[in-house]
Structure formats: C-alpha cells, structure tokens
C-alpha cells in the first residue's frame, strides 16, 4: 500500500503525516488499529513504504542496551540446597554466550551495610560487581564474567531479609545508571526466599517503590522467589514494576528453574525496546516521521505497526510508542506487539525514517 492509501484507513490524523508525504493509492487491507494486519493492504505495504519518495533511510532495528542489576538474597534461610542450586544457576547464567552484549551488575544482601542493622540504601546501591558487559567468550578471557564468578568466593548465607533497603538501593543504582547511560534500559532482578524481616517491613512500601521507579524513571523490576517467599507479595512487586507476575522457583528444581527465569527475563527485555536510529542523511531525526515494520520469521506478510501516543493508550493494540513524549530516545512496543515478537524467534524489525508516522 502506498502512503496515500493510509488516508482511507486512518482519516484526518494521517492527512497531516503519512498522506502529506505523497504516493499512489492501492486497494486497502484491514486496519492495524487493534492487531497486526495480515491482509494485502498494510501487511503488504512494507516495501511500498520503504520505496516511497518520502523515505530517507531504513535500518534493521537495534535493541536498546540492557543493564541488569541482580540483587541476590544471602540471608540465613538461604543456606543449604537453595544456596547451592541458586548460585550454581546464577553462575551458569553468567557463563552463557547468549548474554553477549548484556550489561550485568551483582549485589548480595544482607551484606556490608546493606543489612537489617544499618538499612543503608547507598550501600545497597553499590554493587559487589559493578556494571560491565559480557562477551561471547569465556572467563578468564571475558574479564567481566570472571569478576561475576569470583564474587561468590567465601560468601556464606547469614542475616535477615532487608528487602526495602535492597530494593531502594537497586532503584537508586538504576537511576544513576540511566543518568550515565541515556537510552539504555535498567532492569532490576530481586531474588529472595523470604518476606521482609528488617528495615521497612511493610509490603505495600515495596510495591509503591517498584511502581514509582517504573513510572518516574522507566526502571523495570522482576521479583524471583525461592521457597519461603510470598507469591502474593512477589506478584504485587512484579506488576508494579512493569512485569507480568512474580516468578517462583522450587528448591528441588532451583538450578533449572532459576536459569530459565533469568533467561526469560533477558529475552523479554531485549525483544521489545529499540533505539531510534540515526538518519543516514546526517539530519536530525524528525520524531513525527518514524515508522516500524515487523517481518514475521515465517516469511508471511509484513506489517506496519501503528503508533499510540503513550503506554496508557496501548490497550490490546499491536502498536508502539516512544519512551518519552518530550525527549524520546527509545521505541517501545505495546504488550500485544511485544508478546508476538517474543514468540517469533526469527522476527525482524525495520525502522523507516522520513515518512509521516502511521497512527494505530
């Protein structure tokens, strides 16, 4: 479908954007407003958009750099099989070549001021292993992987569960990381086997902290629980932190389940946010002239994803929005689009610059 045809699909909103860019009309397919269009119109319109005179460049989308802060419970109740299996899982995760390019920082709690006595948020925000980026090589060649593996030496579970200080510290770390690395994505992974026993013991405090971090700073929080943790509290923290639900790991299958949980967290986050590319012409990117095309891995029809103004207007639309209305740095998929892309391991996302943005 050439650009002029979008006036028929989206009415006046498109007349100031896509339709103003020109193009010749073809028969239309179904609208992308509430899902991916698989008809002959929008679904087959990817090449027409790319070949249109308005297109200045098109690039395969690049994932937003992902920075993980793993806040890991080493309270006394973790001693025994839970500690052995969960730390083995964490080390195996660090060693996976699939993590090449992923940033990781690690902190244990309670430990060194990040404990139930001092409740020092600043200490909790200071990782045992600072943020670094893994490669597809193995330790010791991959020096950051070696640092992560060495962090477990002589660590013995002890103490209580200062969850509020741990989460507040992780959030503080996330804010500082995003300030130093604008355009990155900060993801917190809170792993615990219990409910809060020290510092602020109110579960609602944790929920509100995770919610504020997501709404105010775009920081995502995952809550992973081993035996002894509260599924209800984990779910509440996870939902507030922008994830679907808490992740429970059994003691008997801790190693396998924790590895799967960590891999799922990584894969989910890298699939649904993309950097806004630079224009190949050297011009500043006009944020009102950005379009996103999804190429299904099975070779079926391409789909142009429409834009919604914000996450609040996603509903069930297979669409996208900017991370910020005033100073956008990332393209973020709505949950429906995100779910589809995550399930399509061979999917390709293309970003076209220069043509008026198609609304959902």
List its salient traits.
360 residues; alpha/beta; Rossmann fold; seven-stranded mixed β-sheet; six-stranded mixed β-sheet; 31% helix
Structure description:
This protein has 360 residues and is an alpha/beta fold. The chain has two domains: 137 residues, no CATH class; 206 residues, von Willebrand factor, type A domain (Rossmann fold, 3-Layer(aba) Sandwich), CATH 3.40.50. Helix content is 31%, strand content 19%. It has eleven helices and 13 strands. The strands form two sheets. The chain has a seven-stranded mixed beta sheet. A six-stranded mixed beta sheet has the order 4-3-2-5-6-7, sandwiched between helices. Strand 6, helix 9 and strand 7 form a beta-alpha-beta unit. Helix 4 packs parallel to helix 10. The longest helix is centred in the middle third of the chain and has 18 residues. It starts with 5 loop residues before the first helix and ends in a 7-residue tail after the last strand.
